[in-house]
């Protein structure tokens, strides 16, 4: 236990320095909270109403799901511009299969995910084995799949979907305790999740202390965890007073956990970071760089397909315009979340928070009645500011 | 005869290294002056000082040019006085035409609009002067290296060159191209152009040079006048390598054990030019506990040999066998080579060896993640333990293993690379210039690690351009030149003179 006290004593005097060194990680979280509080005030409390919170998740789920894949592609040193079109194409495919061809939903969903994977594989093939820049390949893919969705839908909107398909997006987890409102299942999940976050944080902290690594001052640790757990419980409570946990939120939450684990705790994740950081060094360390890059694109394709299904289910129709320019929101979310254009840097949690920042801004500005013209300008400036902040921080550290 | 250039007491220090120590160089107008010395002796640094790459103020000493003290703030200043340097790596834009390359940055234009007829007319005149029979519109990448070299010289002539500096101009040229180039130098000399030529090829130096300055360890050793006395290659070699062995190498009990690795009939062709053979029928072996040196000049093919052995990371149409402990092993991919028991510590640690943005810990485990993970999930506690173990064993100076590698000094970075490969558990380590750019103290530590490996019965192949290091560390030395092994020496019979004589007589 003497280690622990020594560690604390060593870190306490440089709290300012610690904050400066980790400004980016804290900054992102606080930026999200500040933006939410701002809109909460200017929208007279509309932003955090249960129904609006539910809507926020439903509206942004497909962006967040694609941001998970995009983060990995960008960490690997590439980019995928085709995700919006792929998402629209898969939505169209699902509509044609279910509505026009009467294929059962249980068959359509896996088929669509496989198609997404194949699209990713086709693009990844050219990027990886022919060394064609991913920007070009996926720009081509963006045009091709935009065209193919128009062709599939013959320029029309196709819908509506059967109810079982809509549940993918608009369904809620039933309250197993039968209380209804507040939804006790949701509350229970929230409490368990909050406890898990605090427990994992403490475990990591204990481990870092044991190795005598520079760790955050205890006060920071407490405040940060209190804010995160508090915010989580607050959101879940609000949801529970409405209709409980949306299915998409659960999908999204589970995927976020899985991908955070994959990128931070597994050898595959580690290798993707290494190849994004220095592909030559990774290759000379025996890492199959080509195969991994290829897989990042396959993964992106599957997630884009899932996003397409969720989006179509939410609108209850597939339109030729679905997914238009969505790739830009996804990419912006990843960069706001702290990923580096040159690869090797970025975190899943960052990308998710980045997506929420974009989502809350969209939502808040719409509630305020700000025109789409100004909304675009503001979003653009926020993206630029986030990246400038990154570059500035990096220069200062040198 | 007037003195065109005099460099007096030039001293240039890099952090931790004194690259030039009171060097003096005097060049007479209208002569060809050869600058010779081993790799790393300071020739290129001296020429960078002269051409303004290292501007006035970053070194001590004076440059007198044409009777005046010269102060260069950059290359433009030296070029304005007619000092043009042609680097070993040619600085041409491959996709642009000869004409465009000749006048890049110096275009025949009025108010920013190109004057193409004038450009082509002047290009033709310059090409005629250097004896290059190519159309001015030919893209440079269609020319061979020899012709590209001529384009560089034509470019220098277009700038009214008075002092032409050529860094290893014939290193990449065939015999006939080299002859043509040397003839051109003699022609230019007749027209009054003074040149400084840096070369390892002593026969060429003897053929064209009027004066020879030998540099060793950043200091001028001798200036020989070839016009008044006959100078033998032996004499030059002696001056080049004749340092007393003041550097120390840790003692090691030399004992070669059982046969560990055998390479037989190894042939490699250039990755892009399928007809160019880079490695020519090489055979060699390493015994357990043996440190085997590979000597050679830059461009001899040593790195290419190592990279092709290690997972065919270089070249194409590779043939030959690699045996470890008598068994033929698979080295067709890097992963297979590592599994078979090979490790390769690259020459360029920043470009090829490390993920600079990542921490020490992550770099150390990168080549062997399976030993710190179970079912693909990394055990970070175990990983930290491993990293800590190597930090202590290798004496990596860092506050913690969570430090980013980019913040470490060169010596500590090299220890991280070595740690990575030791953790991969190899039988044979190929070390490519393991002490390049490292200060003396860290060098000694690296030598200690090499000796430790040998004591454990590992085989070490050490590629180095520093001959004292090779002589001090190796049990046996292979001498490599132009893609083939041209000699093998036991430590007891090896000397710098003998190694050099293998190379210069090849």
From TrEMBL, chain A:
Gene Ontology MF: a single term: transmembrane transporter activity
Residues passing through the membrane, by range: 26-43, 55-74, 81-99, 105-127, 134-153, 184-201, 221-239, 245-262, 292-312, 324-341, 348-368, 374-392
Signal sequence residues: none
Record keywords, A-Z: Cell inner membrane, Cell membrane, Membrane, Sugar transport, Transmembrane, Transmembrane helix, Transport
Annotated membrane topology: Multi-pass membrane protein
Subcellular location(s) of the protein: Cell membrane
Entry GO CC: plasma membrane
Function recorded in the entry: Part of the binding-protein-dependent transport system for D-xylose. Probably responsible for the translocation of the substrate across the membrane.
Protein name: Xylose transport system permease protein XylH
Natural source organism: Pseudosulfitobacter pseudonitzschiae
From TrEMBL, chain B:
Cell compartments where the protein resides: Cell membrane
SMART domains on file: AAA
Membrane topology designation: Peripheral membrane protein
InterPro entries assigned to the protein according to its UniProt record, in alphabetical order: AAA+_ATPase, ABC_carbohydrate_import_ATPase, ABC_transporter-like_ATP-bd, ABC_transporter-like_CS, L-arabinose_ABC_transporter, P-loop_NTPase
Key words of the record: ATP-binding, Cell membrane, Membrane, Nucleotide-binding, Repeat, Sugar transport, Translocase, Transport
Any Pfam family matching the protein: ABC_tran
Chief location bin: membrane
An annotated Gene Ontology molecular function: ATP hydrolysis activity
Limits of the ABC transporter domain: 5-242, 263-503
GO (cellular component) term, any one: plasma membrane
Source species, domain of life: Bacteria
Nucleotide-binding is among the record's keywords: yes
UniProt entry tagged with the keyword Cell membrane: yes
Name the UniProt record assigns to this protein: ABC transporter ATP-binding protein
């Amino acid at each position: 236990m003497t280690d622990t006290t020594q560690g604390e004593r060593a870190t306490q005097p440089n709290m300012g320095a610690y904050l400066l060194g980790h400004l980016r990680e804290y900054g992102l979280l606080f930026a999200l909270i500040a933006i939410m509080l701002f809109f909460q005030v200017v929208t007279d409390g509309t932003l955090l109403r249960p129904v609006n919170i539910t809507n926020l998740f439903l509206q942004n789920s497909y962006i967040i799901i694609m941001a998970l894949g995009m983060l990995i592609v960008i960490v690997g040193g590439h980019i995928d511009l085709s995700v919006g079109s792929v998402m629209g194409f898969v939505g169209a495919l699902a509509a044609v299969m279910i509505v026009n061809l009467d294929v059962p939903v249980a068959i359509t969903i896996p088929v669509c995910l496989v198609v997404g994977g194949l699209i990713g594989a086709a693009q990844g093939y050219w990027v990886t084995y022919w060394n064609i820049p991913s920007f070009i390949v996926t720009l081509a893919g963006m045009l091709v799949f935009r065209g193919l969705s128009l062709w599939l839908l013959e320029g029309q909107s196709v819908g509506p979907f059967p109810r079982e398909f809509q549940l993918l997006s608009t369904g809620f987890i039933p309250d197993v305790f039968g209380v209804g409102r507040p939804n006790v299942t949701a509350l229970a999940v929230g409490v368990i999740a909050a406890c898990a976050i605090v427990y994992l944080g403490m475990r990591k902290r204990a481990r870092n202390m044991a190795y005598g690594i520079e760790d955050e001052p205890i006060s920071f640790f407490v405040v940060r965890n209190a804010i995160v757990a508090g915010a989580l419980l607050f959101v879940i409570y609000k949801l529970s007073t409405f209709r409980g946990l949306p299915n998409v939120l659960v999908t999204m939450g589970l995927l976020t956990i899985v991908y955070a684990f994959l990128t931070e705790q597994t050898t595959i994740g580690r290798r993707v970071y290494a190849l994004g950081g220095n592909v030559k060094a990774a290759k000379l360390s025996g890492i199959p760089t080509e195969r991994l890059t290829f897989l990042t694109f396959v993964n992106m394709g599957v997630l884009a397909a899932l996003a397409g299904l969720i989006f179509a289910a939410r609108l209850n129709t597939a339109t030729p315009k679905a997914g238009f320019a969505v790739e830009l929101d996804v990419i912006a979310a990843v960069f706001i979340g702290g990923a580096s254009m040159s690869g090797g840097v970025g975190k899943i949690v960052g990308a998710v928070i980045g997506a929420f920042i974009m989502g809350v801004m969209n939502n808040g500005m719409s509630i305020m009645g700000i025109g789409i013209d100004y909304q675009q300008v503001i979003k653009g400036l926020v993206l630029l500011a986030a990246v400038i902040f990154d570059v500035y921080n990096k220069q200062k550290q040198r | 005869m007037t003195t065109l250039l005099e460099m007096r007491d030039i001293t240039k220090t890099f952090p931790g290294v004194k690259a030039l120590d009171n060097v003096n160089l005097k060049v007479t107008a209208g002569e060809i002056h050869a600058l010779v010395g081993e790799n790393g002796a300071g020739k290129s640094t001296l020429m960078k000082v002269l051409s303004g790459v290292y501007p006035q103020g970053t070194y001590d000493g004076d440059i007198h040019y044409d009777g005046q003290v010269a102060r260069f703030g950059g290359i433009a200043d030296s070029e304005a006085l007619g000092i043009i340097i042609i680097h070993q790596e040619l600085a041409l834009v491959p996709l642009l035409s000869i004409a465009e390359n000749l006048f890049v940055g110096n275009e025949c234009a009025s108010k920013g609009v190109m004057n193409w007829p004038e450009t082509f007319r002047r290009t033709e005149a310059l090409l005629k002067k250097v004896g290059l029979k190519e159309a001015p519109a030919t893209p440079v990448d269609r020319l061979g290296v020899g012709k590209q070299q001529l384009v560089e010289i034509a470019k220098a002539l277009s700038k009214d060159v008075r002092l032409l500096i050529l860094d290893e101009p014939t290193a990449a040229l065939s015999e006939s191209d080299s002859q043509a180039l040397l003839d051109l130098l003699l022609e230019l000399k007749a027209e009054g152009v003074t040149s400084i030529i840096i070369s390892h090829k002593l026969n060429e130096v003897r053929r064209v040079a009027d004066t020879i300055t030998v540099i060793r360890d950043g200091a001028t050793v001798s200036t020989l006048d070839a016009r008044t006395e006959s100078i033998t290659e032996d004499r030059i070699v002696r001056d080049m390598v004749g340092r007393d062995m003041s550097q120390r190498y840790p003692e090691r009990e030399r004992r070669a054990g059982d046969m560990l690795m055998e390479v037989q009939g190894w042939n490699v062709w250039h990755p892009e030019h399928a007809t160019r053979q880079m490695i020519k029928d090489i055979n060699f072996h390493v015994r357990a506990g043996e440190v085997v040196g590979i000597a050679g000049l830059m461009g001899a093919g040593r790195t290419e040999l190592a990279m092709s052995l290690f997972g065919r990371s270089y070249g194409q149409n590779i043939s030959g066998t690699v045996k470890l402990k008598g068994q033929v092993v698979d080295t067709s991919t890097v992963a297979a080579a590592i599994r078979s028991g090979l490790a390769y510590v690259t020459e360029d640690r920043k470009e090829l060896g490390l993920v600079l943005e990542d921490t020490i810990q992550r770099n150390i485990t990168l080549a062997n993640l399976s030993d710190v993970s179970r079912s693909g999930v990394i055990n970070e506690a175990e990983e930290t333990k491993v990293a800590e173990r190597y930090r202590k064993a290798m004496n990596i100076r860092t506050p913690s293993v969570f430090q980013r590698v980019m913040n470490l000094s060169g010596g500590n970075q090299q220890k991280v690379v070595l740690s990575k490969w030791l953790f991969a558990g190899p039988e044979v380590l190929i070390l490519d210039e393991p002490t390049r750019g490292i200060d003396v103290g860290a060098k000694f530590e690296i030598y200690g690690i090499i000796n430790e490996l040998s004591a454990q019965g590992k085989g070490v192949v050490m590629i180095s351009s520093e001959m004292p290091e090779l002589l001090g560390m190796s049990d046996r030395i292979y001498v490599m030149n132009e893609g083939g092994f041209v000699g093998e020496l036991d430590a007891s019979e090896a000397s710098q003179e003998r190694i050099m004589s293998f190379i210069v007589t090849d």
